[in-house]
Design goal:
It is built from 7 helices and 4 strands. The chain is of the alpha+beta class and 190 residues long. Helix 1 packs across helix 6. The longest helix has 22 residues. The radius of gyration is 17 Å and the shape is globular. Bound molecules: flavin mononucleotide (FMN). Flavin mononucleotide binds next to strand 3.
Length: 190
């Protein structure tokens, strides 16, 4: 698939069929993550591939409680209605974690040291685009309490959980959200 087609057609899927991802495809997807740029080429990402139904269920239970807490604080109705069912429907969750010490020279700049997280975000985007090119649907998921999610998924304390990619095959038709005109978001200094 052409890179520009993948960029335009990737979308966030929140309803999955109970259908496994072929092992060969999953390996290709993880390999794509590993080709992302990273600070000092440290490749700080660690991919925790969660297939275990009990772990997925525990994460969903945690997120549902958390959503009610957020609703109580924010009053946002969408949060109270948000369904975390996809966490158990999808065959695979890829938790992307990294050691904050695996960052670049940015660690010596006050209030920075975020290069490890940016690197993980680049890996996540690669994972999502490669998935799309292989016909696998994904969601970038971050609506969890990090210490609780790490505990549930067995991610060691010294790693930061940057985000989770939900991956599988959609049960819904593709839904593409519009984008703002890029000219409105661009400043050119000549
Ligand atoms: C850092 C980040 C965190 C996100 N967290 C969530 C999330 O927790 N739950 C969710 O449903 N979508 C989440 N998303 C997906 C966005 O809602 C989605 O990308 C956006 O609405 C644009 O839709 P599209 O991906 O279908 O083009 C996240 C996206 C990013 C980049």
């Amino acid at each position: 698939m052409d890179i520009f087609a993948a960029l335009r057609q990737r979308w966030s899927c929140r309803n999955y069929k109970s259908l496994d991802i072929e092992e060969e495809k999953l390996m290709k997807i993880l390999e794509a993550g590993g080709w992302a740029p990273s600070v000092m080429n440290l490749q700080p990402w660690r991919f925790y591939v969660i297939k275990n139904p009990a772990l997925k269920q525990q994460l969903k239970d945690h997120c549902e409680v958390l959503a009610q807490t957020i609703f109580a604080k924010s009053g946002w109705k969408w949060v109270s209605k948000y369904s975390f069912e996809f966490l158990v429907q999808a065959p695979v969750l890829i938790a992307v974690a990294a050691d904050p010490k695996d960052t670049g020279a940015d660690q010596f700049i006050k209030e920075q040291g975020t290069g490890y997280a940016y690197s993980c975000c680049a890996a996540i985007q690669n994972i999502m685009l490669a998935s799309h090119a292989l016909g696998v649907d994904t969601l970038w998921f971050s609506l969890y309490d990090t210490p609780a999610a790490k505990e549930i998924l067995g991610i060691p304390p010294h790693l930061d959980l940057v985000s989770i990619v939900v991956a599988g095959y959609s049960a819904d038709p593709e839904k593409h959200l519009p984008r703002k005109p890029i000219a409105d978001l661009t400043v050119i200094k000549e």
